[in-house]
Amino acid sequence: MKQPMYSALGGVFEYLNSDCGYEQWSQYLIERLKRLGAGAEGLDMGCGNGYFTRALWRAGYRVKGIDISPRMLSQAVILARAEGVGAEFLEGDITKLKLSGKVGFVVAVNDCINYVPHDKLSACFKRVAACLVKGGAFIFDVSTPYKLENILGDNVFFDDDEKVSYIWSNRFCGDRVEMDITVFIRGEDGRYAREDESQTQYAHSEEDIAAALVKAGFSFETEGHLGGDKLERINFLCKKL
Q1: Which of 9, 111, 208, 217 sits 20 to 30 Å CA-CA off 161?
Q2: Residue 71 and residue 165 in one domain
Q3: pTM given for the model
């Protein structure tokens, strides 16, 4: 039986993504937060196993991580404690985000916003804005519709090593990618346990994101990798007006 999103992957997500340039990515975030004049307290939205939460904490920010996956958060706590990081981790749905006070910045890294359905995008940005002080920073990235249709969509990916193996099968469905993932995790006794889960990523156009940001009260600029019409990822650097 397939499990909820990031249940099967929750404990090994950071391990499987160890080659994605975490260190450079975290430095990019820190540099952009400084450029935007972000305050010292913030939120890592969709924090996963907490790499960026830990990196921001070590850089001197008072940051909390929030994620919808309990297994993601359990591993985030383990890794934070192992590194002596005192960040707090909260379970929550980013489309229903609500904090008791306001913070100076929110970051949402590595496709977090691609998991927000089209009809909830505007409301999500409004909730982020409500959590920020005036002039607060909001930095996030999205995988582009081009990437979802031509790189991820209708393709199968797999990997196999001594600790974890997986098969990742995708279907492009017009405005989203439906993903089926099977993970085999090696136990201490040498046997592998199998788990299955499903995910959906939504193809948000740059125009739709821009309209939702303006509606939520943000100014913004974008940065992306060179590629013209084949751009795979766009970063949005936003400030609450």
Answers
A1: 111
A2: no
A3: 0.93
